Amino acid sequence: MSFLIPCPHCGNRSVYEFRFGGEVKQRPEPEAPAADWMEYTYTKANESGVQKEWWYHRSGCRQWLQARRNTTTNEVLEAFFPQ
Amino acid sequence: MADGSRKFTFEFDGKPVEARDGDTVASALYRAGRRIFTRSFKYHRPRGLLCMAGKCPNCLVNVDGTPNVRSCVTPVRDGMQVRHQNAFPSLESDWLSGVQRFDWLMPVGWYYKTMTHEWSWHAAEPYIRKVAGLGVAPEPGKGSTDYEHEWRHAEVAVIGGGPAGLQAAFELAQGGAQVTVVDDQIELGGHRRYRKAAGGIPSQLIAELRSMPGVEIISRAYCFGLYEGNLLGIVQANPHAGAIERLIHLRAKRVVIAAGAYEVPFPFENNDLPGIMLSTAVQRLIRLHQIKPGNRAVVVANGSQGDEVTADLREAGVEVAGAITPDQVLSALGSSHVTTLRARHGEFACDLVVICGPRVPDGGLLHQAGARMAWNEERGAFLSLGLPANVSAVGEVTGAWLVPAIPLPPQDLAFHKRSFVCLCNDVSTVDLRDAIQEGFDQIETLKRYTTLTMGPCQGRMCQLSGIGVCARETGRSMGETGVTTSRPPNPSVSLGALAGPRHHPTRRTPMHYAHEESGAVWMDMGEWKRPRYYKTASSSDERASVEEEYRAVRERVGLIDVSTLGKLDVKGQDAGKLLDKVYTNRFSDLKPGRVRYSVLCDEAGIMLDDGTISRLDENHYFITTTTGNLDFVQQWLEWWLVGTGWDVHITNLTGGRAAVNLAGPKARDVLQALTACDLSTKAFPYMACREADVAEVPALLMRIGFVGETGWEIHFPAEYGEHLWKKLLDAGKLLNIRPFGVEAQRLLRLEKRHVIVGVDTDALSSPYDAGMAWVAKLDKIDFIGRNALSRLSGTTPPQSLIGFIMNEDAIPQDGAAILVNGTLAGRVTSSRYSPHQGKAVGLAWVASASAREGAEIEIRVNGGTARARIVPDAFYDPSGDRLRM
């Protein structure tokens, strides 16, 4: 694993500067059904292909960003600060 | 070039060897008459120089304590200490060379066939380790740490400094590109350095290249891997006098691979005897080192390379006794060196057999780049197809000029137990045939079963012949047989180079040297150094010191450095809202000047960290985290802030603030002497905080009680660390104050049953399991983990964290097993001897069904069991009165 992530603040940087933060998921409303919470808390899509992920630029700008990465090729299509 | 202008001396096995400028260790030893360089991995057969290019395993030596150094590409340095490997007592008379007489006892897959019981391997391992192998790794802590790491960037990286690489670099640089050339030899020029027929060194091209702006040349550096994102792993030998190797992480926008091709041997009986050498090795000895490689040579060749090397040999004064084609070769004779080559039409007495073997494109990096390796019948090689856009290949690595050579002797002569395919691991043609007959007839399984291509040369010498044997035995074509996957590192890399200089960062608190003066005995907590306890004149062992420190806190006053706590300053209009969302406790209703404890959970309700949060004013909070969790907590808070638009600013003050905890019944007297702040319980109650000057230092005082006595945690600017530490000790001198360490603190908190998250809890512990239900405010509409916790709140957890007091004098170890009615029912997380109880006390996870108050449990201690009883309350001051005094 040695791909680059185009940090929207710092530019192209080695993945070793980042901490992986997991898949981007929508957090359910507090009173959502238990099944939604189960899904959110315990299930991972683990997409074979492009998925949206959280990354933290630990050795750089120290900001959380989201990236769309192809999990089979490690190609990062884009990285951005979520609004 | 070895022009002899300067002479060196180094030692081989303790005896001096002369060397000339430009010599490698191997060339100097060869000139001095050495012919045996190593003993083989399994059979201890003598092995001599074969490739002279750093591609084969035959010349590995120990240099200055570093094992497995390729002597043929290692320049000589004055005073170098070189030793042989894997032979006793010497390379010439190796007692273990008798092993080869028993090779019939060692069929292919010997380990799998003989080590069929667990005990058989355990019994055999020590002997096998002594007999088989390469160099011996240095003793732990004794190996050299003179390794470096470097990170570089290039627009274009050219791998290979031969004619093609140099030409490519030149043209790219002329076009304005910034180019880095990586070459594994001592000098640039590739095969033109030693092949007179190829036109000699392109000196003018090299000189021009060196003078061009934007061109960098890294010599004596081999590339062992091409990783994602065009990251090249490169090891440079002896980058300067103080370093053995430098690992270069080179990131390039574009990679041009000009790794060239190398010559490989082919199998016949005794093809591994010293004196049997590849033609390019012979040319290197003659042209690069002015060495006459032998007296009487036989040239085995199939094409023009034979004529070329014959001319070189004659020029060097070597008699060429014969020239034959590979299919004529029957076997070589000799015990420790070749003396005769037997051919179909006669025998040749000789001391040098020159093999003009097939040339193999060095395509490992192309394979790693994602190319498919396909057999090309016309070229007699596996060539790359489908390179990615930013990787290209030039020169011989493309196979463009290859002419196929015969990689294998005829069928009737091919098989002999001493006809070696793999020199690294002593794998013969017979071994391969047997393995194929046993069913390992796919190249990838054949590789794993026989260890073909798995030695130090990583298949460079044996891959082509191995595939050839497999193809012929299975009746498939070379293309159908295919090639094994090339993975980095290829070639092999020393662990020292990968590990690097082994720098270990250490963090010291601002009071570090004051602790040292007080006799601190250190312990590591992550990167931090913390006093475990203090050695004093009256107590020199740990137990006595800890007890003295304990008594000081319980009876008088003690002072501990807690600067390693994570400290976060949280400001903004929405600070309380964020803390309410992330922590389980409630903070938006906390009054300024008050402190509250909380834990932090994930969405599954598992406790991640704990700490205190002080509200300094309406929009300003101060958080402490546990020492190791600071980064995590800060990132966690910031993560939950993303996208909210809330007005919150989080600043890490950990390095900027020192912190101490002053605790004990006399703590107030000590602190009051240094501050104007009213410390009376009425003005400054338990769980309150105040900003005030202490010894003229602006400080934040928090009245909290981790150790269970009246006390203040004092946070203040780090630059005053030593000043305030000493002022507090001075102020407490008459009261017999003592600094205390982590061990006493752990005992004091354990008596209070204060949990340490991560020590007493694990990745399955919720506040309910840990008996801390009060910390989860389920009446908040939402917080991280609320959903999971609300479902857990009404249920009985499978395990509960309980407190126990021993009935006997035994002290369980942390982690000891707990038995109920003879069956395993839990484990101890923390246990210490409690001076207050007069017995050991502790915390433990116990199956909830057995966790009844007053119930008896058994704990494994020193191989036996000891009895304890479960108690509901803290072991010391359960009502907490002493905290509020």
Q: What report would you give on this structure?
A:
Chain A is mainly beta. Chain A contains one helix and six strands. In chain A, strands 3-4-5-6 form a four-stranded antiparallel β-sheet, with no helix packed on it. In chain A, strands 1-2 form a two-stranded antiparallel ribbon. The radius of gyration of chain A is 14 Å and the shape is globular. Chain A starts with a strand and ends with a strand. The model of chain A has no long low-confidence stretch (mean pLDDT 96). Chain B contains 22 helices and 46 strands. Chain B is elongated and about 110 Å long. Chain B starts with 6 loop residues before the first strand and ends with a helix.
Task: Describe what is shown at a glance.
Chain A has 83 residues and is mainly β. Chain A is 11% helix and 39% strand.
Rounded mean pLDDT of chain B is: 93
Helix content of chain B: 10-25%
Helix content of chain A: 10-25%
Discrete helix count of chain A: 1
Q: Spans of chain A with pLDDT under 50 lasting ≥5 residues?
A: none
* Cα-atom radius of gyration of chain A: 14 Å
Coarse shape of chain A: globular
- The overall average pLDDT of chain A, rounded, is 96
Distance between the termini of chain A: 29 Å
Q: Strand sequence of the main sheet of chain A, in spatial order?
A: 3-4-5-6
- In DSSP terms, counting alpha (H) and pi (I) runs of 4 or more, how many helices of chain B? 22
Summarize the biggest pleated sheet of chain B.
Answer: 7 strands, mixed
Low-confidence stretches of chain B: none
Share of residues in strands of chain B: 25-35%
Question: What profile does the largest beta sheet of chain A have?
Answer: 4 strands, antiparallel
Number of strands of chain B: 46
What is the structural class of chain A? mainly beta
Number of E-state strands of chain A? 6
Distance between the termini of chain B: 85 Å
**Helix and strand composition category of chain B:** alpha+beta
> What radius of gyration of chain B results from the CA coordinates?
37 Å
